[in-house]
Amino acid sequence: MDLSGVRCLVVGAGFWGATLAERIAAGLGQRVLVADRRGHPGGNCYSRKDEETGIEAHVYGTHVFHTKNARVWEYVNRFGGFSGYRHRVWTEHQGRVYPLPISLATLNSFYGLNLRPAEAAAFIAGEAARDGVREPSNLEEKAVSLLGRPLYEALIQGYTRKQWNRDPRELPPSIITRLPVRSSYNTDYFDDPWQGLPLDGYAALISRMLAHPLIDLCLGVSYADIAGQIPADCRVFYSGPVDELFRFSLGALEWRSLRFEWSVEPVADFQGCPVLNQADADIPFTRTHEFKHLHPERGPQGEKTLLAREYPLNFVPGGEPFYPVNTPANEALLAAYREKLRHFPRLTLGGRLGSYRYLDMDAAIEAALACFDALREEGPAGKPWRERP
Ligand SMILES: Cc1cc2nc3c(=O)[nH]c(=O)nc-3n(C[C@H](O)[C@H](O)[C@H](O)COP(=O)(O)OP(=O)(O)OC[C@H]3O[C@@H](n4cnc5c(N)ncnc54)[C@H](O)[C@@H]3O)c2cc1C
What we know:
This protein is of the alpha/beta class. Among the domains are: 144 residues, Rossmann fold; 87 residues, no CATH class. Helix content is 31%, strand content 19%. A hairpin with a 6-residue loop joins strand 3 and strand 4. The relative contact order is 0.21. Flavin-adenine dinucleotide (FAD) binds next to helix 1, strand 2, helix 11 and helix 12.
């Protein structure tokens, strides 16, 4: 691959990379090369039609778009329409099913009560006070101090243990900042004013973002394959893992990974909802995705249904990094890598892998737009890049 003449390289064609590339091409009139090691654009948001059922499969797990950010919402809507889908999640514990996040419906069903909205907060506070945790020193204590022990042990403990492969008492309390308890029967998973799914799928939406004539997209190309040929005056925007960028010279950051087990079931509706969590530790998967429920506007979509069961995995080099493990040791390593980056002023790190943060799609786009704003001021070689009219 000949990179001579390339002045702007974006590594990773997920929402972060696609947003930056689109803005640089359409907003600044600059040619951009986008390289991704996968055989498709879209990063983890990628979806495709399942051949057997025709149902749109979210290849890396259910992705629902939701945001409070008007700029992000206006931006993504330039590339296609969104349905008005509102996400709802249920969790199974010892053969009974409860809505998540915890709402009045969950509380009343779990405790066999008929609390009114005004009674819910006091009830939960009473449950939480029973363990007397004042300053939580680990995830378990934090969750118990927010919810009380019965709900924690039923709905949080087993799921957390599976997700992180650690006892919740070994995890920092900071992993959960809050566990919302709604005092109403509202079972929406997200509160954001703008929510939905791309009407013709994520792959089509991201392909439209990358369709600008000044964008060259190279799939199946890893940064390591081309690093030696990048011209010295090229600006690089990198959304891969930072430890990999420096060839793990300071050590490897920890990630959690996932494996999806796919099946087609000979029933029109398997579980009655798009995502069903499995709260119990003795069931090895954490959730089952039933994708047809994400698009009620498409009708019944046949007599079969497509499922993916999600199994958490330890990350091994060469596997897929999904969730950062933000322990103090990993944060210290991240800071050391960031320090190294200061020697590379033409290299900008971002996205969920580069920042080593769990980012929702809107946060990845918001960060890319902020990066573009800074770039517009700064210019490729110290000169301002003038925005096209
Ligand atoms: C299971 C799961 C479910 C999620 N559900 C939701 C949801 O419902 N709603 C929501 O808003 N967000 C959700 N997210 C978060 C969402 O996936 C991220 O916000 C989004 O993927 C971030 O985009 P990104 O571009 O930063 O990263 P990515 O989508 O991961 O894209 C990074 C790209 O960089 C490429 N890459 C990495 N390293 C290299 C390299 N060295 N060389 C070349 N290419 C490289 C990768 O192949 C990848 O395509 C979920 C995440 C997970 C893990």
